[in-house]
Amino acid sequence: MAESSTISGNRGLQVEEKLIFELDNPGALAVDLPEPGPIDLDRMGGVARRASTGLPDLSEPQVVRHYTRLSQKNYGIDTGFYPLGSCTMKHNPRLAEKMARLPGLADLHPLQPQKTVQGALEVIDTLAGWLKDLTGMPAVAMSPAAGAHGEWCGLMAIRAAHEDKGEGNRRRILVPESAHGTNPASAAMCGFTVDPIPAKANGRVDLDALKAKLGPDIAGLMLTNPNTCGLFESEIIEIAAAVHGAGGYFYCDGANFNAIVGRVRVADLGIDAMHINLHKTFATPHGGGGPGAGPTVLSAALARFAPVPYVAHGPGGLELVEGGRGGAKPFGRVKGFHGQFGVFIRALAYIMSMGADGLRQASSDAVLNANYLQASLGDVLTASFDGPCMHEALFDDRFLKDSGVTTLDFAKALIDEGYHPMTMYFPLVVHGALLMEPTESESKDTLDQFIAVVRGLAARAKAGGADEFKAAPRLTPRRRLDETLAARTPVLRWKAAVG
Ligand SMILES: *Cc1c(COP(=O)(O)O)cnc(C)c1O
Asked: Largest CB tally within 10 Å, which of 114, 129, 177, 433?
């Protein structure tokens, strides 16, 4: 229960909200239906329900209030600044939402005859064209459902390419220590072993250490660029050449594409496969498990192993190709139907409304905003690496040394100030990381307010305010949670009290 001195447990207009099952008011009904007549249970093949469904009985106003109050407890990009590093929490234009809701698109059924969905296939094909143009890559697998799924798809194509050459023994993948957790997980799911490579003091991959790990069993490298420290891998051309020289393929985690769209052609970096998180780079509300999409661009060496289905131009219009065609050897299928169509529409609407020049402007502004944060906080926080950053600013906890305040405490204090905290303790390569990604869609005013708050908190921490930090958050419906208990012993199911 929230700590509160009120009789009701409510605080101001914040209402203490129970689970809807606990609100159950037997006999109250939101609908008024006639009593059903007698049912011939035999006709239901023995599956007729005999016990109550356990669904709560509530009136319509009770249901409306319950869900409206829950929605008010949800902090999102539409309520405030959300500097969550590595997540690209940018504004999602309403135009994209409107397009995704057009009945002619939203009401389609994936099993409709192809001649009746030519427009939808054109959406997929046009978006694929943009993704190929923006990366300079010759092919794209559209169906992966998220970034992690795209990683898996790209690695499966790499595995298929090695097997096709009779080199299926190549099963070792190099992954930098700073990588997102999905990278080693995807590699392991593809049957590869993961070999970590260290970073240099400047936050980039150690090229000599990487070269020392190359060998005849190397399947490839997974590298994020810009990397998870918010830095461009300046030796990426040499890295690609070394991996190719050892017979491996180069997978790039493209989650940070928002920093380089319109400025860097992925193909020029020697990359063989890269997923693009459409939900991060091209708008779609995400976080909390919302839908994503992870189309994966492929180099000429990997293109023929791309999964089915894909859209192709045929004599009768656009068609979905389900098998190998023209020497292609698809490694299989990664998803039911054709991919995350609703996210495709949003991405295409965003891309077309921005135009190529607008996309380039967005990535430039994202980098500018991150550098504005880094420069404005550099004298009170401790930036982990020298020099300018890309789309996100990385600080570590040296500025909190001897204050008794941890990165976690600092993040909790930000909540009381009305901000979703930045990403903390990631990447693992710096101590007590604070990773801030403002994106291009925040105004200078918003950034200045945030900077003032962070500066104020840093001053408070250094002035001996540890107790106050340990008690934060004070103003939320729930105070500090036992996050370890919640993660280890989650309560996922409501059960009625017996009796
Ligand atoms: C977000 C992210 C991923 C995973 O993408 P999902 O769409 O969440 O599966 C992988 N790598 C990096 C660096 C990311 O930021």
From this structure: 433
Do 137 and 250 belong together in one domain? Answer: yes
- The pLDDT of residue 4 is above 90: no
* Residue 147 Cα to ligand 1 middle (Å): 5
Q: Is the pLDDT of residue 54 over 90?
A: no
Q: Residue 411: pLDDT band by 50, 70, 90 thresholds?
A: very high
Q: What is the CATH number of the domain that holds 430?
A: 3.90.1150.10
Answer yes or no: is the C-beta of 182 below 6 A from any ligand 1 atom.
yes
382 & 415 share domain: yes
In a domain, 14, yes or no: no
Domain region containing 263: 94-351
Residue nearest to atom 3 of ligand 1 (CA): 147
Q: Is the CB of 148 under 6 A from ligand 1?
A: yes
Which CATH number does the domain housing residue 122 bear? 3.40.640.10
Is the pLDDT reported for residue 227 higher than 90? yes
Nearest CA to ligand 1 atom 7: 147
In a domain, 476, yes or no: yes
Task: Give the chain as a 3 state SS string.
Answer: CCCCCCCCCCECCECCCCCCCCCCCCCCCCCCCCCCCCCCHHHHCCCCCCCCCCCCCCCHHHHHHHHHHHHHCCCCCCCCCCCECCCCCCCCCHHHHHHHCCHHHHCCCCCCCHHHCHHHHHHHHHHHHHHHHHHCCCEEECCCCCHHHHHHHHHHHHHHHHHHCCCCCCCEEEEECCCCCHHHHHHHHCCCEEEEECECCCCCECHHHHHHHCCCCEEEEEEECCCCCCCCCCCHHHHHHHHHHCCCEEEEECCCHHHCCCCCCHHHHCCCEEECCHHHHCCCCCCCCCCCCCCEEECHHHHCCCCECEEEEECCEEEEECCCCCCCCCCCECCCCCCCHHHHHHHHHHHHHHHHHHHHHHHHHHHHHHHHHHHHHCCCCEECCCCCCCCCEEEEHHHHCCCCCCHHHHHHHHHHCCCCCCEECCCCCCCCCEEECCCCCCCHHHHHHHHHHHHHHHHHHHCCCHHHHHHCCCCCCCCCCCHHHHHHCCCCCCCCCCC
